[in-house]
TrEMBL record:
Signal peptide: none annotated. This is Tetratricopeptide repeat-containing protein. It comes from the Bacteria. One of its GO terms (biological process) is receptor-mediated virion attachment to host cell. SUPFAM superfamilies: TPR-like. TPR repeats lie at residues 18-51. Keywords: Repeat, TPR repeat. It comes from Gracilibacillus orientalis.
């Protein structure tokens, strides 16, 4: 690190450089102040964009807040430029893919890590992960739905659709989801997201018809129940709304993103007390990458009389996500 001090007359200005920003980021990370940590690490990367250590540490922060896609983008860049000098990236990628439910990708990177770092810092964790993934593989059919190369394509489409849906860019989301359904017809979530976007772009009757048909063919489809509850709330069909909300009331998913989706659904249909209980069960650190967490949790709080708490959460979301900063809080247009 070069000398950060430069004398100009009687002034000794301090000129922060990459290592200074990085050290501040590490300090914030150790205190679990992940938002602040990310700001410092991004400054460090801006100063030294080729420093792989900065990117690796930033990826770990993204993992902590549940932004696994962003973490993997950084780790992939490090591997492409520095390869074997940063083998820990293989384990970090495996861990992130496991959280995303892309088990074959997780196995691939965990095996690479064990192979290239048999005595590495994360070898024991990687082996444990492989044992879990091997067990999951035994539970699945031999003809897995997704080949490795297909998983890569699915991930790209998922990221793009998620980006547009979180920003309520319905037409853009529909275009991506239509391609995704054509290419990966067995990936059911794409259909539900398509129906959801279709409803809010104005094609309500078609969206309801498609979702009802899907639920008839797949009676256990949780996403269908959530979508239809929202659709019938907007259609003010109280009888059908009651039917689907009673179903959701007895469902407690394991996966964090499904838990969030139920909490958001309950908020959107006005069941704020039930929604609040669901939001309190979430792990915030895993959902900071979701604007919908801030948008609907703050809305839920507001309509339960927690106006100051709601505003604080909304302001935090605006700092995390630029898209929220240019939007109006939902409670202001739902009154």
């Amino acid at each position: 690190m070069s000398n950060p001090y430069q004398i100009e007359g009687n002034i000794i200005p301090f000129i922060p450089e990459g290592d200074f920003y990085f050290s501040k980021g590490v300090e914030a990370f150790q205190k679990r102040k992940f938002d602040l940590s990310l700001k410092w690490f991004k400054k460090a990367i801006a100063e030294k964009p080729d420093n792989p250590l900065y990117k690796c540490q930033t990826s770990i922060v993204y993992t902590e807040i549940g932004s696994y896609h962003l973490a993997n983008q950084l780790l992939t860049k490090v591997l492409s430029t520095h390869g074997e000098d940063y083998v820990d990236c293989y384990y970090l990628l495996a861990n992130n893919y496991a959280h995303l439910g892309l088990l074959q990708e997780a196995m691939k990177y965990a095996e690479l890590y064990v192979e290239r770092a048999p005595d590495g810092e994360f070898t024991e964790e990687a082996q444990s992960l492989l044992e879990i993934l091997d067990f999951d593989e035994e539970e699945e059919d031999d003809d897995d739905e997704w080949a490795l190369e297909e998983e890569d394509d699915v991930l790209i489409y998922q990221e793009t659709a998620f980006y547009h849906l979180e920003r309520e860019e319905w037409e853009e989301a529909i275009a991506v989801l239509e391609d995704m359904i054509a290419l990966f017809p067995e990936f059911s979530q794409a259909r539900h997201e398509y129906h959801y976007a279709l409803f809010f772009v104005g094609e309500r009757e078609e969206a309801i018809e498609k979702e009802e048909k899907y639920l008839k063919d797949h009676p256990d489809a949780l996403f269908s129940c959530m979508n239809l509850a929202i659709f019938y709330a907007h259609e003010t069909d109280k009888e059908k709304l009651k039917y689907y909300t009673e179903m959701l009331d007895n469902i407690y998913p394991i996966h964090e993103q499904q838990k969030l989706r139920i909490a958001v659904t309950l908020t959107q249909i006005g069941l704020y007390e039930k929604a609040l209980l669901r939001f309190k069960m979430l792990h915030k650190s895993k959902l900071k990458g979701h604007p919908s967490y801030y948008r609907w949790y703050s809305t839920c709080q507001y309509f339960l009389g927690m106006e100051e708490t709601a505003q604080r959460l909304w302001d935090e979301g605006c700092r995390q996500h630029n898209i929220l900063a240019i939007q109006t809080p939902p409670w202001k247009w739902q009154k």
